[in-house]
Amino acid sequence: MDDLTRDVRPDTAGESRPAARPPRRWPRFVIGGLVLLGVAAGGARYWLNARHFETTDDASIDAYTTQISSRVAGQVTKLLFADNQHVEAGQTLLLIDPRDYQARLDQVRGQQASAEATLQQAQARVSVQQAAVDQAAANVRVAEADLVMARQDYERYQRINPGAVTRQQVEAATAAFHSDEAKLEASRQTVGGAQAQVRAAQAQVLAAEASLKQAEANTRAAELQLSYCTIVAPVTGMVTHRTVSAGNYVNPGQALFALVQDDRWVTANFKETQLARIRPGQDVDLAVDAVASVTFHGKVDSFQGGTGTAFSVLPSENATGNYVKIVQRLPVKIVFDDPRVKDYPLAPGMSVVPSVRVR
Questions:
Q1: String of DSSP letters for 288-333
Q2: Whole-number Å distance between alpha carbons of 330 and 351
Q3: What share of the chain is helix, strand, coil (3-state, %, to 5)?
Q4: Contact yes or no for 178/158 (Cβ under 8 A)
Q5: Backbone torsions φ then ψ of 262, nearest 5 degrees
Q6: Per-residue model confidence (pLDDT) at position 2
Q7: How does residue 323 score in pLDDT terms, banded at 50, 70 and 90?
Q8: Is the pLDDT of residue 28 over 70?
Q9: pTM surpassing 0.85?
Q10: Digit-coded pLDDT (tens) for 116-126
Q11: In whole angstroms, how far apart are CA 198 and each of 194, 208, 318?
Q12: Contact yes or no for 280/262 (Cβ under 8 A)
């Protein structure tokens, strides 16, 4: 029968009209097949492309953070930075009241001056005692000369005929000889005493030098304490996490603020089963959640020397109890190799999805 032939059925009103033609189902099957084919093709393409990448969502931006603490106690007189300000190394950031430390420095400088004067006195005393030694040595030489003359007279009178000289002359020569011997011995003893005085004066010099060194050390320590009243930036970075205000009293070791250094990198915690094909130097695509429109470029830098659990506060103890194997993660350092990084405010802790190109 011709496709245009229509069946005529009577209706309830007694009139006749054409019967409805069954709908055609083949377009739906075609569309569904095309969709499935597209999905399969897309999945195959994704799988073929994904084979060349290792990725993880357990990654974040990292940076070195320097905690700035007070090294002396005192009242904060002035803050010279604003929250989240970028500062340069050596820039003055905070001042602590220095008056107590200035007074201490003045005191120890006075003690140092006194120690220097004491040393000069001790050195002068050594010079005086050395002069006394020289004088005593000269007296010894005089006494030796007198003794030589007295010995000659004594020996001469001993050889002369007793009848040619009087007994008084012999006794006088003998007395003079023994007297000069005693004088020589006394002069030698004087030299020994003067030398002992020199050694005592030299010991006083050593003591004065030690006192001066101690005073100089105290001065340097006081100068350091005074310098700690001025806190400067040790590195270049951004001031953050401020916990101090002008007028606060701070104690040594108290954390005041932090400096986040400018260098940025990504710490990606890959599963240990993903590391077989990852090598330092491989290219990495970095998708930062905070900058969804930009994919940064980087390179694998290095691997941490242990898994995260190995350096945790309470590392796992697998030698006790029942053991359940858990796939561990190893932190991998990925450095940015993209000049666009400085154009975006990438902060430590931001989430990143790295894709390491392994082939």
A1: EGGGTT-EEEEEEEEE-SS-GGGGSSS---TTSS-------EEEEE
A2: 17
A3: 45, 25, 30
A4: no
A5: -70, -30
A6: 44
A7: confident
A8: no
A9: no
A10: 999 888 888 87
A11: 6, 15, 75
A12: no
